[in-house]
């Protein structure tokens, strides 16, 4: 029996745990939701009751204020003076005035005016003797003596609708009387009469009913003396503890052994107090119904959820059984069959974890090799997407943010400074010579006694001091070749070319020295026209798969380099740009076809001593990518794009040249040509034309002594200031600053 339970324990263990995971959150959530809902309901009821009371108070205050205002308005009427009411006409006028006020206000049913010393009551309907009026309206509520006292009052007074009889007639509609003195005009003390308003109690109750719709509830209105004026229901008497409470209150109180929601508020203008009581049992009926329905829903959720869990467990446990059986077969020989159930899976996971840790260790050990691969790829110009390349480098701890340059170092152990026996240089402590805040990375090389560093550029580099410290620390003379500063990663291969060339320069200038970029050329040497247009056209024909046209432009470009370059080093920079242009133009096609592009060896380029050797590298690269240029020809579209580009190069100097004129030249619409050119080149016509003009401006700034104004006229700009702004936005230099910088032999035109 125990063995059987042991076999089934895994299934039922998970079944019970999943059932608990379903039941506990549902129960806990339901409990807290119920408590939250009840608390929210209580808060809403108290707020609703308080708001209702404020509405009742505001409504009653408005009505009472109107009735007091009527008394004030009557004080200004001469026909309501006691001495005037002795005449029949004045009595008639007073009755008409009162009827106007009665018709305008439906809150009270009747209003009667009693002037001091006048034995008549004037109402909106007629005139009465006091005894007749009492007999008609108030005989059920007060005796005649009480009525006379009411008429003799000289202050605001309210009289509740109390009955003199123990048994009331069902047809009796009681009145609430509200007396307001009519002041003498110009006096705040003396009065000339009294207005008595008769308000039907049932009308007031109907008004209160609209504010409080609950069955077991009541609204009480109490005057300033604590006397009950009226209430919504006569069945729920006003508790004394609420009647004599001095302060406003709200909350749940026990009244008659039952809980009630109580709210109380007092009017500041009339001193009347308004109290509501609502039975908690009445309010909680919807909550109890919701609780009952929620219990049923929760029970259904538990039943359905448990059934789904059981079915899923039954279905998904079979693969687990098969997995345990497979593990049992695989590990049977290694553990001798001693493990059972999950222990076999645990053993398999331990084995996989060990293998994973081993692989992680191997990956960690390969990090230096991966770092060297990326650094070597960087020097060869194979960065591709520069931002993605930076991210890959940063994952391996290579931070390349800012300006960098390449530094090549050659040790000369046969020329030891201490005259001891020569020995190979096994390490280069250059990192110890350079300040720690300068970022640098070593690139491994197989050449003996040579080290390559990618070093961050900073102002005030002390090359001479660092070189002396290196000599002193190693006892060996060193030659250090320094490449140009580069702001972009794609420019580092040119810095590498410059550094290797500088290192080779020690055969002429001597070893044990630092050779900086500006020491490689004579003071009169400077770059002539950079073949920007030819490289643009070369890239265009490469992308279009036009191999014949590509070779023709290639020959033209190489011929220009040989004719214009004044040093082999500057030519090497341009040759590198040519190779880079070729590989970049076909990189997308190579990626699409799954063909890997091999970048040429930079060292091979630096070791070239003639233009023919560098030409051979370029032609070899072009031959290698020739299969990627095999595309379907689209002569019509390609011919149009080539004609547009040639027209732009021919007309760039015309300041009146426009897209509309170009569209007329090709008999096409301007919008079509603009859209077509953008789709084919990724650039707008204006951007491309501006690029041609900027390139020509750079050539003229370098090759000639023309003023900026003359250059502006030659390249098609009409305004020198707009040209200067455009030039600076493109190169971050003004034309004058660019010309001065290009006079330095180690500078080169930006790409």
UniProtKB/TrEMBL annotation:
SMART domains the record matches:
HTH_ARAC (SM00342)
Residues crossing the lipid bilayer are 12-37, 292-313
Q: Which SUPFAM superfamilies match?
A: Homeodomain-like
- List the PROSITE patterns: HTH_ARAC_FAMILY_2 (PS01124)
Keywords, sorted A to Z: DNA-binding, Membrane, Transcription, Transcription regulation, Transmembrane, Transmembrane helix
Q: Does the keyword Transmembrane helix apply?
A: yes
Provide the HTH araC/xylS-type domain boundaries: 642-741
- Record-given protein name: Helix-turn-helix domain-containing protein
* Gene Ontology MF terms in the entry: DNA-binding transcription factor activity; sequence-specific DNA binding
